[in-house]
Design goal:
The complex is a heterodimer of chains A (about 280) and B (about 280).
Chain A: H1 9-22, H2 34-48, H3 53-62, H4 71-89, H5 97-134, H6 141-168, H7 171-177, H8 179-203, E1 211-213, E2 219-222, H9 223-230, H10 234-249, H11 254-271
Antiparallel strand pairs in A: 1-2
Helix pairs in contact in A: 1-2, 1-4, 2-4, 4-5, 4-6, 5-6, 5-8, 7-8
Chain B: H1 5-18, H2 26-33, H3 36-47, H4 50-63, H5 78-96, H6 103-119, H7 121-143, H8 149-156, H9 158-187, H10 193-217, H11 224-235, H12 241-264, H13 266-273
The chains are: A mainly alpha (about 280), B mainly alpha (about 280).
């Protein structure tokens, strides 16, 4: 080796942006994010092996292996492989196709698990919950709030993960699966739980029209009022927990639960438990 | 309210950008433009009625608040929810003379959106399958070491899939749908069993969305407490969402510190602490 190759800022930035934009644009059930990965590695490979078509081909070939994970957190994996590819271009003996793909395959699952529950399962619902509150009555404010805050979070978050992955290599992921990562996950999960509770109390409303009438036609027992005097929104909470029970304990798919709700609604309307009370 | 060709094509364009494998990219496309709340804003701007768009979008957003697509399995397609469901629900509300801000308006919007969203999964599988064609071209390019072509494969050719499976279906549904909405109005009176059921389903469906999210958080009965705590803050104490989030944040900080303390003194108390509550998420 005559000189150590170092990836330029430009190539890294291009690689990051290719991932940021293109991770899923050419999605198929068969290859998922593989092509997104290929275009992200391309600027790096072209710079590291400029003029050496065979080594370029060998490097690109590495990334034809299947890849799929949560795309925002997945940026860290792309960053790590950028660092590994640089090491390989410098003649490091312990980096070969197997190390790279072993690492990619090993990280896909855990990163998807953390990413799905943190990003899609917690951060997005919290932001949306706040945004919906701000948009009450049809104001665009909440929607604009979400657009700005989410995109700043996603862009800079992914950028941070990518460059941390590049600089620190696999150490970057230790943070995610180490002590701090676990404490953060637990805290964020509780935060998410509380906010989702507030979201459902604010935005979901299941009401019954069931009532008992005396001989004079006056309602002496309005079920909805009785239920609300026990715990405001009780019926909504019961239906939510019922749906949770069907999905996690009975292992029904969301679609089947929805169909079951159609049946429940139909029967409920027939027996007078549900009545939206509408007419033209 | 009618949807013009020009408006329908604009909606189709946003559908192409926003779906899961959308051409806006994951962060801007699927996770921003695809969210019904944002879709409501976009549809409101395109159709010239921002408040109605936002209110319809908000109603549908609750159902899809936790739309996770693990390993590319979808239970609903956001492009269909946001750019077919929302416009049609807006048309329906106008046609039936309902206020989007009322609970009934929200229930109607939710039923419409969910129906369209479920049917829309066909579009998802259509797009993903058609992308196989471009990937085929991609593999040939890798073979021939013509790597620049990968950009074409990843970012340009999928537009064709989206014209076929996002733009055209959206345009057709928005143009035809307005008539269907009117036909439904004549065929099914509002006080009939069918419409009553439709509205009731609309008020029940958001529970599924919330439950999908809870499924990730709740493993045993005690895990329901944070959820019910948040529920109580809003329903019984009347605290709004931003304030609820602040209260939740306070608890999150406490838990973070406690957990870190617990994890970082392994030798002293570790043996007793390390029992069954260490669940990996």
């Amino acid at each position: 080796m005559t000189e150590t190759k170092k990836l330029s800022k430009k190539a890294l930035s291009k690689s990051f942006h290719n991932w940021y934009y293109g991770n899923l644009t050419c999605f198929s059930q068969e290859h998922m994010q593989t092509f997104g990965y290929l275009v992200s590695m391309l600027p790096l490979v072209e710079e590291l092996y400029a003029g050496d078509e065979d080594r370029k081909a060998a490097a690109m070939n590495t990334y034809t292996a299947f890849f799929n994970t949560e795309p925002q957190f997945g940026a860290v994996v792309v960053g790590i492989t950028a660092g590994l590819e640089e090491a390989r271009a410098n003649g490091s003996d312990d980096v070969d196709d197997e190390t790279i793909n072993g690492l990619r395959a090993g990280l896909m699952g855990p990163i998807a698990g953390i990413g799905d529950s943190l990003v899609v399962g917690t951060v997005i619902p919290i932001l949306l919950g706040i945004a919906m509150g701000m948009s009450t009555g049809g104001s665009p404010l909440g929607a604009i709030f979400y657009i700005i805050v989410w995109n700043l979070f996603a862009y800079f978050g992914m950028k941070l993960l990518y460059y941390k992955g590049y600089e620190l290599g696999t150490k970057a992921v230790e943070f995610l699966i180490g002590d701090i990562g676990e404490a953060i996950r637990e805290a964020v999960t509780t935060l998410g739980g509380i906010v989702i509770g507030a979201v459902s109390a604010t935005w979901v409303s299941v009401k019954t029209s069931f009532a008992l009438y005396n001989s004079a036609g006056e309602a002496y027992m309005v079920l909805q009022e009785k239920l609300d005097s026990v715990f405001p929104g009780l019926l909504t909470a019961i239906v939510v927990i019922f749906c949770w029970w069907l999905m996690s304990k009975k292992r029904l798919s969301p679609l089947k639960v929805m169909l079951l709700l159609v049946v429940i609604a139909f029967v409920g309307v027939l027996v007078g438990f549900f009545d939206p009370g509408l007419a033209y | 309210m009618t949807i013009s060709w020009f408006q329908a094509i604009l909606l189709g364009l946003f559908a192409s950008l926003s779906s899961m494998p959308g051409l806006g990219g994951t962060s801007i496309g699927n996770y921003t433009l695809g969210r019904p709340l944002i879709g409501g804003l976009v549809c409101g701007i395109i159709l010239g009625d921002i408040p109605t768009g936002i209110m319809v979008g908000t109603a549908m957003q609750v159902v899809y608040i936790a739309l996770v697509t693990p390993g590319g399995t979808v239970s609903a397609d956001v492009r269909a929810v946001s750019y077919i469901g929302i416009p049609l629900a807006m048309v329906a509300l106008k046609s039936y003379g309902l206020e989007a801000s009322s609970a009934d308006g929200a229930a109607l919007a939710t039923s419409f959106g969910t129906m369209v969203g479920t049917v829309g999964t066909v579009l998802f599988y259509g797009t993903a399958t058609m992308n196989l064609l471009w990937q085929h071209i991609g593999w040939a390019a890798v073979e021939k070491r013509d790597y620049q072509k990968l950009y074409l494969v990843d970012m340009v050719l999928p537009w064709i899939s989206h014209i076929v499976f996002s733009l055209i279906p959206t345009v057709i549904m928005c143009k035809l749908g307005a008539n269907v909405v009117d036909a439904i109005k004549v065929a099914l009176p509002m006080d009939g069993i069918a419409m009553k059921t439709l509205f009731t389903v609309g008020s029940l469906l958001p529970c599924v969305g919330i439950a999908i999210l809870l499924k990730q958080i709740v493993r045993n009965a005690a895990d329901f407490i944070p959820y019910l705590f948040g529920f109580t803050l809003a329903a019984s104490m009347g605290i709004n969402l931003v304030s609820s989030t602040v209260v939740a944040g306070m608890f999150a900080i406490l838990i973070y510190k406690l957990k870190l303390l617990q994890l970082r003194k392994p030798a002293a108390a570790g043996a007793a602490d390390f029992d069954d509550d260490e669940e990996e998420i």
